[in-house]
Amino acid sequence: xxxxxxxxxxxxxxxxxxxxxxxxxxxxxxxxxxxxxxxxxxxxxxxxxxxxxxxxxxxxxxxxxxxxxxxxxxxxxxxxxxxxxxxxxxxxxxxxxxxxxxxxxxxxxxxxxxxxxxxxxxxxxxxxxxxxxxxxxxxxxxxxxxxxxxxxxxxxxxxxxxxxxxxxxxxxxxxxxxxxxxxxxxxxxxxxxxxxxxxxxxxxxxxxxxxxxxxxxxxxxxxxxxxxxxxxxxxxxxxxxxxxxxxxxxxxxxxxxxxxxxxxxxxxxxxxxxxxxxxxxx
Length: 282
What we know:
Protein name: Tetratricopeptide repeat-containing protein
Pfam family, one: TPR_16
Shape: elongated
Order of helices and strands: HHHHHHHHHHHHHH
Number of helices: 14
Structural class: mainly alpha
InterPro entries: TPR-like_helical_dom_sf (IPR011990), TPR_rpt (IPR019734)
């Protein structure tokens, strides 16, 4: 009488063990999938930051073949094209992202950025015009300012630059752009002020230092501003100031500045020497 009961218990035990085994297999499979997902996310991050941009392009192209509808991979490809400075190819890649149902306003801003880099200013303006005005980000307003500049809409440009500066904790770059806008308009004093603000925000930004010297030279102020600079930078800025003086017709001042640039540079300053020789021989 005990055998049928024992058999029933054994069968039940086997079923339970089988069920446990199935559940265990499912858990293992899920764990493997989770690990793979983490590994893939980490690899995507690497491809978008430290990896060679062209390697990133190849990776996202390859991965998209198996997952053509994943917007994160589409974005990765578009960003990689921009990182590789392949802007003409970046634009259609961003257009593909924009078509996705999960695309965002940020994607449109990034597409406008790629269009500007590709020289497609009118298209970039249309892209930004299609973004709701409620989408207020630093990058959006920086691009709006650049487009207003290209259209010589100075009041709009100033307004957009001002908003962009207020939306970032690192405004040096946009202040430099704003200053350059003022420089092209002939507003040299305001340009100098903005370049000075940019340098105060980021003392390593040599472009702003050089632009500041150009603004001073345009005002016939042939002394270097009181800003942080290493010896090589000082020599290069003296060279810029010398060329500015020569352009203004102040040739003798230019010669003096070129000699000072040659003496200041810790190595042989070929560009300054060549300019000085050309002046003295003429």
